[in-house]
Amino acid sequence: VAELRQHGMLASQTATEQYRHEFLVDLKSYLIREVAPTVERAYRDRVEPAALERGEVPADRHAVAELMDREPEFLWWSALSRVQHELYVDSTGACVQRQLPELIERYRARVAGETLGSLHLNTALKIPDYQSRVDTHCIPGGYFAELAADDVYVGARYDLGLHLFSRGQRGALNDRAAWHSIALLRERAGDIDPGCIVDMGCGIGNTTLPFAEAWPEARVMGIDLSAPALRYAHARAESLGQAIEFRQANAESTGLPSGSAEIVAAHILLHETSEAAVRNILREAHRLLAPGGWFVSADVPRHLTAHTPLQQYLAAWDALHNNEPFFGALLFDVDLPGLTVEAGFDEASLHEALTRGAQGRDDYGYWGFVAQKPRVVSP
Amino acid sequence: MSEPSDDRDPPAPRPRVPTGLRPAYLGDGTGDRLLYMLLALTTEFSALREEVEDLRRFLNQDGDGLARFLAAHPRDEAEQAAARQRREALLDTMFRILREDFALEGDERMRAYLQHMGKVAGR
């Protein structure tokens, strides 16, 4: 477990805030450890046997939902999980709001004058429905709350909140997913020397910076829909001494030139979009890549660690109950690597991998896949 | 290239209610609200408990320093006002869920919530 690495944009915690957050993170672990098993026991010992006696065989997570959605164990688990999440988001939000004027000034100071990287915002960008109609993860304001000019609230809360919530298991800079992608790329693509790398849905740039570290000669770009996250990302990258080009753009249609990148990456992105958007994003990645270039995705591995219909039902809880409406379908019903091939990538190059630790219940492993754009594209 | 703005207005309050209706798991939502209040209170209790531990560790460095300090420094008006504010803030944290939930339509919350999420997902 990594200590959060300090950088120039990181929000701090008072002792009281820290104690609140520690309690709420402990509460989450407690719920997973002590309360979730009561749901499993209720299903195994009472609900499933009764269904089987009636001649019903719950074949998938939807059938389990029909049986379990009004069972008291599930309702209590859901109520507790929801409240824990709301309190955690509100508490980390209050912590960041307390120091927001100072964080905004830090942003302004970081980006004034000569900078290593750059930030290009597009105020006319239309936010797609799958992001504008829900506040993803039940975080009020979603990725788009703007509380002041030059606001960085969204990014600052995300950076601090993610690290505390994961107990540092996502890396000292919340960047473990990107290092997993880089390892996958090196394993499959060999000793590549990319000229340009695009990180789609880069958010606060936590998954973008490792690419600049891994390939210091490359032009590294991070694109995202969220202006406040990108402002934070830009100042964060500057404070960490990395030259990144951040752009506000939709990963479905970036506006970047065709064939201009050797690597296109997407971290924890695809499951927060829709199936139609995933198809567009994969087609856009294919368009952006030069022949022989590589696409890499790292996402949550819940579909690989949930084997029974009950496990899948519980693993997809966030879809309906935590404002991630596409989560269940995209991880359990849609063949994302298959869509990559449909988008034009070479099937023979397609490779999936689970990170170490991803088999456990309460950890932060990643499910990654890479695919190469054919060197010669069929006419 | 984006340039910082000259606008120096203070930040607006952060949004505190996510899109969509809040699902009700425990009855008509009364149980959910009570649960929220209980856990909010417990969070504060836990944080305070840790602060007391810190103070205890600090004071133990100095023998009977706390008793001597309280005798010599009774709370003045400003400190008493600050304590009232802290109590108000704690109550505000506890009862926020009632204020927000009762501002929404009360009937068939769960059905409406699930319908909303289904619509967003295109189902």
Provide the descriptors you would attach to this structure in a database record.
heterodimer, A: 379 residues, alpha/beta, eight-stranded mixed β-sheet, B: 123 residues
Mean pLDDT of chain B: 79
Query: Measured on Cα atoms, how large is the radius of gyration of chain B?
Result: 23 Å
Give the overall form of chain A: globular
Helix-strand pattern of chain A = HHHHEHHHEHEHEEHEHHHHHEE
Arrangement of strands in the largest sheet of chain A: 1-4-3-2-5-6-8-7
Number of E-type strands of chain A: 8
Beta-strand content bin of chain A: 5-15%
N- and C-termini, Cα separation of chain B: 40 Å
Helix content of chain A: 40-55%
Overall shape of chain B: it is extended
Could you tell me the strand content of chain B as a percent range? Answer: under 5%
Total beta strands of chain B: 0
Helix and strand sequence of chain B: HHHH
Unreliable segments of 5+ consecutive residues of chain B? none
Note poorly predicted spans of chain A. Answer: 358-362
Give the largest chain-chain interface (CB within 8 Å).
Answer: A-B, 62 and 44 residues
**Into which percent range does the helicity of residues of chain B fall?**
55-70%
Main β-sheet of chain A, in a few words?
8 strands, mixed
